[in-house]
Amino acid sequence: MTDTKQITFRVRRFDPDADSAPHWDSYILNVPDGMTVLEALHQIKAEKEPTLAWRSSCRMGVCGSCGMFINDFPMLACQTQILHFGTDVVTVAPLPNYPNVKDLVPNLEPLIEKHAAIKPFIIHTNSKEVDEPTGEYIQTPEEREAFSQFTYCIKCGLCLAACPTVATDPLFLGPQALAQAYRYTADNRDCGLKERLEEIDAFHGPYQCHMAGACSQACPKGVDPAFGIQLLKRTLVLDSLGFGKKPKHVAKVMPLAEVVKQIEEFAPPPRTVK
Amino acid sequence: MNNKPSAYNNRLGLKGWMYAGRYSFERYLYLGHRLSGLGLLAYMVLHIVETANRIRGEEAWAELMALFASPPFRVIEYLLFVMAVFHAMNGVRLILVELGFFLGKPKEPVYPYSTSVLRHRSLTYIIMVLAGLLMLLGSSSMFFK
Amino acid sequence: MRETRLWSLHILAIPIIAVLLGMHFAIMHYAPVFYGMSVEEARAFDTMIERGKSVAQFVIYILLLIAGLYHGLYGLRGILRELPLTPALVKVVDIGILIFGLLIFALGAYVTWWTFNAPLGG
Q1: Does B61 lie at the interface with C, CB-CB under 8 angstroms?
Q2: ipTM reported for the complex, 2 dp
Q3: Which of A25, A58, A239, C33 gets the highest tally of CB atoms within 10 A of its CB?
């Protein structure tokens, strides 16, 4: 029988059909070591409050669904150990800076729309190549590492909840979209900076980031969007001075047979059966 | 069913610029930079207007200078100096960091994750200490005649 | 490139202000340390007019006006436009700040030129 600790959960409730403003409800649970906030919510719903609503899916920190504002910090509920806080009261609120649909459910449309606005896909010099590929893009491990950390984004939205600019400015693209804009700009397979400029090189783009750093602190996957935004600023400034990516820097497309010829270790060993 | 009940506007607004959660102190350096910037801008505009008084002649000027030599104004002057030092020193950090220097190189995230904010924290501390020293040294100006 | 250019000028203004404002501080507030005269003397009408007659002083003040006003007002524009504004208010902020900046610059430039041309002795 594991030792349990009595923890009070203060959960912010909001019923759009009945309430005009949110209110707080409290539930007391006996929490064993290792229990996450998501598990606590399930237990509350099963035993005490069947109408409690929230979003969750994988329960292991890879889908990004269960973002909530837990003890004054944006966290994934499935990755938050209750007893690690060391407090007797745990407050659970929906993510700030998103419209609150019901209880702990945020409307993440702003996140998705801003992400779509920066064209999150490879734009190659040869536009037909993406749809009808003739070979492989050549990318060395070093070229990959230049943007790899920003590919780990799970679109959980915690960064926009943390950002002070997003708090007041509904048009600001936000750390997620801007870091992804950098992810594609820095990718050597992409040459779409000019196409993205209209969205990025505008007022609500990277220059409204003032390096508060809260987004990187909140990110559960180590993407460090603040880093991506500062690198994006550097890219844009260099590009405006004429030092941007030239067509020759964009990855070449090479048919696989050619690739194999160049890289001996990928070539099959010599036949032993004649 | 087009009648969706309305969601509650959960945007933090101006409160989001102040205390919005258990974030690190760099978030408050940003707020300090904004407030000191606004204060310095207001002062600069007032200063340009006030020094334009010279065209009213020597007596008007001398009156103005006597006013500014009085103790309350010497203290305000020092507070402005403190704001200018903070804004300038934090600004040095911001130029370097916003152009991508002192933040390390992009690499695969391995738990426990490091962030660009933590990676340049030693630079932040050095700048804050230098700023503090300059503010202390500058306090002597309050006592100049 | 629009916003990148505006922001780059904002950053470029920083070292300009740092140097010129530092010189201004040294002359005005640290006169006892650097110039061997009291602060009261440094601010006196005669000293001020005499100082204002050098071409270097004229150039420094005009540059400081341009850099300081641009940097400060770009920052103010950023702060105001980060608030939720209607498109009409956005235009008001942008154009209003531009006009305000030009007016204050005109005032400062006029006073600097007046000092340059003022007869010595008031």
Answers
A1: yes
A2: 0.89
A3: A239
